[in-house]
């Protein structure tokens, strides 16, 4: 029999399964190592790619910033080099124009593999590509700033001024010139549109009934003749030699008060006097010059300084006529600054309603007492003519209800320091400019601090709205010189802000251009609502709640220029509208802005919870609302400016 043991042994070896798992394990181990290693390589690749991309994103964003002064290529390369990626940049492309800059960058980096090379892949290439653009489209901004009296608390005004100025500098850059306009709307109890638009709105300026001192039956006059409550008209009074307009004789400083003088002797040493002139014959001042540094030994009767009038006329080429002189305001000691009408004055040396600004910018120059030879110039002073053309008309009849029918009486505009117009409730349902021709009287309601405030619920002419400006420095200077006034009429501020963005109000802009207040290149603004090439913004800042609207019962009473209504007592004033009504009107305007596609940013600066909630509701969204304290207001304005400048990553 053949020996088969060898074959059986071979067959047994073949069928023996011992050790097969080892072979399988070796293959699986190789596979696991390969997959795990590939994951490590891929993670390394992604880390490199992400670092490159994020660094390049930051680089092109910085390079595209229109405020960036370095060449875009240098900015991108510097960012990448400092991140250790300077050798990965393949290309940088830029495109820029008057109102935009686009920066595009690309690059790649080869990364050697550790594990994928076992699969024949020796390197991976990480790409990066980024494009950033800052584009300033046509931009119309209404910046609404609170200048109410409470802004003097806790240094709020000192914090707000530089923050608002920095905002203007950011949004009104050289690159934005010609495409960005800014309406600056200061508000206190109301908003002053300025005398040009006041007249355009058919504003009815308050009148004083002036009769040159003869009485016309309702006022005693010098002497005891025809003038004394008997003169029926100007001509009769003029015919009587004993009727005088008050002595025009002059006196040297230090003498007794001049008979028939225009000023009450001051109770303390005079500090300065501001003299007001009207060059456009509308009855309100447009030029004012100040004389300061009066010595303590100087007369305290401003009648002794009327020589300032011919002196100032000699110094100012815009002044040519004694009839341009209106009156003067006096400051001295701890007394409240008071205004005294001279042209057409009817109450003698008593104070009158009128401007009392003696700090900050005035529309004129400042002179020292020592520059004026009053002995010489007093002899050249002439009384301004008192009348108006209407009063000289034989058919003229007074429209004053206090004047009996058929009785003539001279009338003239009160020399008011402001031009505010009433805005009634139904007007807040629209985005139109004010429709009323009613004048907001000159008064204060709350306490007054003359060191930092000017008297008036309505801001003064030098704190009127600044329209469609592209002049950055003018706006910065204007903000630096704003003085506070009384009241918080947020609804008025928002009303003007939105109306100045409404294309239906282009006629008003044309009127401003015709009067030299706006650059003619902006004819045709405001641009249409929802225009794809235009962005419209309102930036509304306040430190308090919307207040009630008060008005004096007697809007012409001279005491309104001296004593706050609150101190006069409840019989001196009435509430024209409640706080709730005014807040509702504010929110109506905010809602209209959003409907028209206007982006509304609001800044509640050290307000209480109720005031902050009003601002939150007014804003376009919660992210457009800022509640800040102290120096945080600078950060809020900076954030708003950057959003308006529209810096964005587009790929």
Question: Can you put this structure into words, describing what you see?
Answer:
This protein is of the alpha/beta class and 651 residues long. The protein is built from 16 helices and 19 strands. The protein has helices at 5-15, 20-64, 72-82, 156-171, 195-200, 234-239, 308-315, 374-377, 389-392, 472-481, 490-499, 506-514, 565-568, 579-595, 609-618, 632-645, and strands at residues 89-97, 100-112, 123-135, 138-146, 180-187, 207-209, 272-277, 287-292, 325-331, 338-341, 366-368, 411-413, 466-469, 534-542, 549-552, 573-577, 599-605, 625-628, 647-649. The protein has a 6-stranded mixed sheet with strand order 13-5-4-14-17-18, sandwiched between helices. A hairpin with a 2-residue loop joins strand 1 and strand 2. The longest helix has 45 residues, at 20-64. The termini are far apart. Residues 209-257 and 389-396 have low confidence and may be disordered.
Short recap of the structure:
With 651 residues, the protein is α/β, with parallel strands linked by helices. It is built from 16 helices and 19 strands. Helix 2 packs antiparallel against helix 3, helix 4 runs antiparallel to helix 10 and helix 4 runs parallel beside helix 16.
Topology overview:
Layout: H1 5-15, H2 20-64, H3 72-82, E1 89-97, E2 100-112, E3 123-135, E4 138-146, H4 156-171, E5 180-187, H5 195-200, E6 207-209, H6 234-239, E7 272-277, E8 287-292, H7 308-315, E9 325-331, E10 338-341, E11 366-368, H8 374-377, H9 389-392, E12 411-413, E13 466-469, H10 472-481, H11 490-499, H12 506-514, E14 534-542, E15 549-552, H13 565-568, E16 573-577, H14 579-595, E17 599-605, H15 609-618, E18 625-628, H16 632-645, E19 647-649
Parallel strand pairs: 4-5, 4-14, 8-11, 14-17, 17-18
Antiparallel strand pairs: 1-2, 2-3, 3-19, 5-13, 6-12, 7-8, 7-9, 9-10, 15-16
